[in-house]
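User:
I would dearly like some help making sense of a protein record. Take your time, and here it is.
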Amino acid sequence: MNLPMPPQPVIEARQLRLRPFVAADAPEVQRLAGDRRVAETTLAIPHPYPDGAAEAWIATHPVGWLAGREISYAIERRRDAALVGAIALLNVSAAHAHAEVGYWIGHDYWGQGYATEATRALLDFAENELGLTRIAGRCLARNPASARVMQKAGLRPEGCMVRHLEIGGVYEDVLLFGRVAPSRLAP
């Protein structure tokens, strides 16, 4: 018998709230993710950001949650409910108790610690609520700010995939990071 999946929970952090995206977020996602400065720092956001892409992307989130494969969150500032970015657990494997974290923050909100706080909150949820043991992360080697976010959130450098992705006609190096839940480390 298949039991229904519970609704995706909201995760509260000090300055932030991680909540499921809603269709009404699409215009702000389009604005934030459509900024060239944001797209240039990520592995997957296209630029220019196509019309309708935010709506289509948000529509995939409930399916990913219900299938247990992907958990996407809007990063919302608690004090004024401003949408500042997105964070997700990707390629979730219950069988192997691992996933990959990915995120982006709107340019107006860079340098305020939001990516680190959101990543820490999502890792805590992944380990304590979902029972995941290992979380991986990747970033472009030319994005040292993202590498710092992962390290501040407790992921350790694990290597570099040289010329791994072709972005805009240029082959990019990708840095790898990983974390094993502290409660699951060998004594």
